[in-house]
Design a protein that fits this description.
Blueprint (H helix, E strand, L loop, with lengths): L8 H4 L3 E2 L2 H12 L5 E4 L5 H7 L5 E5 L2 H10 L4 E4 L11 E5 L5 H9 L6 E7 H7 L7 H6 L3 E9 L4 E2 L6 E8 L10 H13 L5 H9 L3 H11 L12 H13 L1
Helix pairs in contact: 2-3, 8-9, 9-10, 10-11
Organism: Microbacterium maritypicum (Microbacterium liquefaciens)
Protein name: rRNA adenine N(6)-methyltransferase family protein
């Protein structure tokens, strides 16, 4: 295989998925969705072939022009394009892919700020999938997105299931856009700022953190926490999506 103008496997961060159970699991998860499919980082097409069998409109992209050329010939019924997942529009109803580990955060940020898809199934680092799904505590990015999206952890992929083998395991992360957002779209920018202030603010307990983040008197902050039903939660990382939404409604009302 000739070297891409963008570099070799190392520069492109390519760890091709060879683990057959995971390929089958990805195909099954996508099969539960509906609509057109966009595959990010198709590589040699191991997943592309499985997705093509679903019989739905499918676009597969990769930055390696040589692999794209080969895959076009192998799968003439699939639209295969040379494109960068950090720039290509997420214009399908379902987004799926084995994400280059070093590009996980920028791709996730783009994905969660785009309004043109309904479901996403991503293979990321295990810790990223675990954190984004809220296992062991939430993160700021997940909390900022939780009123609009649901996250679930769908499996762990051993490092030896990739070629070349990375230093960490992978994880399957599924994301679904909520039919009814927990927070109005018009509030999103203000809500994002509130969540950021909560995660970066100081305080000895949730009411104190809310008081600092929302610039409320402590009695008002205590009432907001109590009214939201989040009183038993100690820190922002412990809040569930419903807690965040309820707390925001209390703070915004004030």
């Amino acid at each position: 295989m000739p070297r891409s103008i963008h570099g070799g496997r190392h520069e492109l961060g390519q760890n091709f998925l060879t683990h057959r159970p995971t390929l089958a699991r990805l195909s099954t998860l996508v099969g539960r969705t509906s609509g057109s499919i966009l595959e990010l980082g198709c590589g040699d097409g191991a997943l592309t072939r499985a997705l093509a069998e679903l019989g739905r409109p499918l676009t597969a992209i990769d930055v390696d022009e040589h692999r794209v050329h080969r895959l076009r010939k192998a799968l003439p019924g699939v639209r295969v394009e040379v494109a960068d997942a950090t720039r290509h529009p997420f214009d399908a109803e379902v987004v799926v892919g084995n994400i280059p580990f070093h590009l996980t955060t920028p791709i996730l940020r783009r994905l969660l700020s785009s309004g043109h898809w309904n479901d996403a199934v991503l293979l990321t680092q295990w810790e990223v999938a675990r954190k984004r799904s809220g296992v062991g505590g939430g993160t700021m990015m997940t909390a900022q997105s939780a009123p609009w999206f649901e996250f679930s952890l769908e499996g762990r992929v051993p490092a030896w299931g990739f070629s070349p083998q990375p230093s960490v395991d992978g994880g399957l992360l599924a994301i679904t856009r909520r039919g009814s957002p927990l927070v109005p779209d018009a509030d999103r920018r203000a809500y994002d700022a509130f969540v950021r202030a909560m995660f970066t603010g100081r305080g000895g307990g949730l009411p104190a953190i809310v008081a600092t983040a929302a610039r409320l008197p402590m009695p008002r902050a205590r009432r907001a926490v109590a009214a939201s039903g989040a009183g038993e939660r100690r820190l922002p990382r412990d809040l569930r999506p419903q807690d965040w939404a309820a707390l925001w409604h209390q703070v915004a009302r004030g």
